[in-house]
């Protein structure tokens, strides 16, 4: 990643100060005293604080440690009004260390039960908003303590994963402790009792936004008592009595938006709610099977109200209901036009903000479960809605939309298969085009938003037709920058970025883009330094794909010349994870086609590593029936055991390891080393494999090894002749038959003086 900016350097002793090369200061620089150093601590305080505000928490802390002045500015209250701890392990000790900075903290996001336990140690008495995910292990006791310490709380959100250990007792504690509460959204609570809801109605008079999502039981009658509620969601909640609801909830005087998505609501209840409620503007009923099965139901007969369902035109409905104007020719830009509108309407803003939130939640659930019958919706509206939501100013909406987009295009995780129709829907130009949106979000300062955007690019880059579009939209540069930006402690974003680059590097033209963007250095850095196997595997795969275009570009040589690249790949062949070993061996195979790389791999210990990689697998005693005893002789169990142990590895690993040895064995010195390191017996075992790719590469390696008399003798002594003869007569691969015949010829033809 090289940003080519002209720079001037002023020197003083060993220190260097890099100055921007701007025309208006060129003369000053040339005329200034070359020994004069810049005193960065003399910058105005507000300038330093502005710089701090653009940094991550980790970088902010690092910069604060440079001097006393910046340490004091680094704890300025204005820098710590919002805190997102999800990317960090937040325990009691960490929370206590942050407490001095959190005197003015107003907004907090956390992840997991351990972080929840630590929240009170932040001593953020001024907290107004708390949002948490991965909340399955959070208990009533923990939640009760949190709300008791933060009586100014106005918003509490826990989800979208289920809050399985939270009960109505904790909800009552929320009501008693947080009288200023305006928004409460909880997911997966087993039972929300009448007492808990009535406590909210009594003690939280400003509660306007309630969400009890994916709950097992919610008291419908009690919800009818919360007269302050404007926005209510019971999406995914089961056991709802819709007859009772339709006779009660339409009386809620302030109810503007109601979300009943993913429930069993029917047309009768929908009709009564829309026709009887004077305040209701929007009813969202996406993925409600009972409603959708009624083919006679029409959504357009309720003037001044909007029903959002699979069979309704959502974008057009929003335009007509709120009299939104659009400057674009496409009605599906309604969310974008609303965000860019110069005329602000608070009521409209509240509705659209709520709609963004509930739509992102419902569409993510639908993408994850992938129910039948949604293909038409995804192609016509769903993909465009997700693209619109990805540009929301609400970061949690961005995250869910990006996750949903990355998820719904995939139809088979194991085989990395995508739905072409859905992928094309993402690639369309709505809302500036899906690839542009994803590439933009990959640059987000929010790590989780960037992570999900990278995941979307990873999935879409599976399609050959999409690789060029991603590169043209700046996706390659964005992905490489991601690796440098989140180079430590961010395994999820690094795995997704490396995976996307691996897919893109498989394309000849895109592989050049990856290299030009600094991708070789970034990927080698991951291979050398990251300990997470998912990142290691994708980084090795990306380097393998970059090196696979030896005939058409110079990436093969570039990877080999990158400092530490070959050593890192050799080291990865020792990984306990087979996927990492396989991709590392594949990268070494591709790199071995370059003469300089071939020798450098050997110097880095590649011969020994690959020779051991093909051999030391554990014997599977259950495989003994697959090898006929007469072929080896009754007493020759060592070779038989080796053949059986080789069969325990995946064909992919077997092929790549044998292929790498084939490439290295072109060198006579390497060929001798392979024989010396015990590489011959496992290659003979792989030559007996039923997998065409495996025995083909093994035969090629044995052919190269047969040039050396010592190796040729070893091939004969280890039973290689019958294996090669068998390949000559029975392999379906012409290449395998040819290689086996050449190996036999070189071993026994007197003209070559091998045997």
Automatic annotation (TrEMBL):
ARM repeats lie at residues 433-475, 474-519, 518-549, 564-606, 678-720. Residues 37-83 form the F-box domain. The keyword Translocase does not apply. Keywords: Repeat. The keyword Membrane does not apply. Gene3D superfamilies: Leucine-rich Repeat Variant, Ribonuclease Inhibitor. SMART domains: ARM, FBOX, LRR_CC. Pfam families: Arm, F-box-like. This is F-box domain-containing protein.
């Amino acid at each position: 990643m090289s940003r080519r900016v002209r720079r001037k350097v002023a020197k003083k002793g060993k220190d260097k100060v890099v100055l921007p090369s701007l025309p208006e200061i060129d003369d000053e620089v040339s005329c200034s005293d070359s020994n004069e150093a810049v005193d960065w601590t003399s910058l105005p305080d507000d300038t330093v604080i502005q710089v701090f505000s653009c940094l991550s928490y980790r970088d902010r802390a690092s910069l604060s440690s440079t001097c006393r002045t910046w340490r004091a500015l680094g704890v300025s209250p204005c820098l710590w009004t919002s805190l997102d701890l999800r990317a960090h392990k937040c325990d009691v000790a960490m929370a206590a260390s942050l407490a001095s900075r959190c005197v003015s903290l107003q907004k907090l996001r956390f992840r997991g039960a351990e972080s929840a336990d630590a929240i009170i140690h932040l001593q953020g008495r001024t907290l107004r908003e708390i949002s948490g995910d991965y909340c399955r292990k959070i208990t009533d006791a923990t939640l009760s303590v949190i709300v008791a310490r933060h009586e100014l709380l106005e918003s509490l959100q826990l989800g979208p994963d289920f809050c399985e250990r939270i009960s109505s007792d904790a909800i009552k504690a929320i009501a008693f402790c947080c009288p200023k509460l305006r928004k409460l959204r909880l997911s997966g609570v087993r039972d929300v009792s009448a007492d808990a809801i009535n406590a909210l109605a009594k003690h939280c008079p400003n509660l306007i936004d309630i969400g009890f999502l994916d709950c097992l039981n919610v008291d419908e009658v009690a919800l009818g008592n919360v007269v302050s509620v404007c926005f209510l969601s019971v999406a995914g909640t089961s056991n709802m009595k819709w007859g009772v609801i339709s006779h009660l909830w339409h009386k809620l005087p302030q109810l503007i938006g109601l979300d009943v998505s993913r429930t069993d609501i029917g047309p009768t209840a929908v009709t009564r709610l829309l026709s009887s409620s004077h305040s209701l503007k929007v009813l969202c009923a996406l993925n409600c099977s009972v409603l959708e099965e009624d083919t006679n139901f029409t959504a357009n007969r309720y003037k001044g109200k909007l029903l959002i369902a699979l069979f309704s035109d959502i974008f057009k409905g929003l335009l007509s209901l709120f009299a939104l104007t659009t400057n674009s020719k496409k009605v599906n830009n309604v969310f974008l036009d609303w965000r860019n509108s110069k005329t602000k309407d608070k009521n409209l803003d509240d509705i659209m903000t709520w709609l963004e939130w509930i739509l992102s939640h419902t569409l993510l659930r639908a993408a994850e479960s992938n129910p039948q019958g949604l293909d038409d919706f995804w192609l016509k509206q769903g993909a465009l809605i997700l693209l619109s939501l990805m540009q929301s100013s609400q970061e949690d909406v961005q995250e869910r939309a990006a996750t949903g987009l990355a998820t719904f295009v995939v139809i088979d995780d194991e085989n990395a298969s995508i739905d072409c129709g859905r992928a094309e829907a993402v690639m369309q130009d709505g809302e500036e085009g899906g690839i542009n949106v994803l590439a933009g979000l990959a640059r987000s300062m929010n790590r989780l938003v960037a992570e999900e955007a990278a995941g979307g690019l990873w999935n879409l880059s599976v399609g050959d037709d999409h690789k060029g579009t991603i590169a043209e939209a700046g996706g390659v540069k964005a992905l490489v920058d991601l690796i440098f930006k989140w180079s430590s402690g961010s395994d999820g974003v690094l795995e997704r970025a490396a995976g996307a680059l691996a897919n893109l590097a498989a394309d000849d033209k895109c592989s050049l883009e990856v290299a030009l963007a600094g991708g070789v250095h970034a990927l080698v850095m991951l291979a050398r330094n990251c300990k997470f196997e998912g990142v290691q595997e994708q980084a090795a795969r990306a380097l393998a794909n970059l090196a696979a275009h030896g005939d058409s570009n110079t990436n093969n040589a570039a990877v080999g010349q990158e400092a530490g690249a070959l050593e890192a790949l050799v080291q990865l062949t020792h990984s306990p994870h087979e996927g990492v070993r396989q991709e590392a061996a594949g990268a070494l195979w591709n790199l071995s086609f370059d003469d300089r790389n071939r020798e450098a791999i050997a110097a880095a210990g590649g011969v020994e590593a690959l020779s051991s990689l093909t051999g030391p697998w554990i014997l599977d005693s259950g495989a003994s029936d697959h090898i006929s005893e007469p072929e080896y002789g009754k007493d020759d169990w060592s070779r038989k055991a080796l053949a059986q142990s080789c069969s325990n590895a995946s064909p992919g690993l077997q092929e790549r390891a044998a292929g790498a040895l084939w490439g290295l064995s072109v060198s006579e010195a390497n060929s001798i080393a392979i024989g010396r390191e015990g590489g011959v017996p496992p290659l003979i075992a792989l030559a007996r494999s039923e997998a065409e790719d495996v025995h083909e590469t093994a035969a090629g390696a044995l052919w190269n090894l047969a040039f050396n008399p010592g190796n040729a003798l070893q091939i004969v002594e280890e039973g290689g002749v019958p294996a090669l003869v068998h390949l000559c007569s029975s392999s379906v691969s012409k290449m395998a038959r040819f290689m086996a015949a050449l190996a036999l010829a070189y071993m026994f033809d007197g003209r070559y003086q091998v045997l």
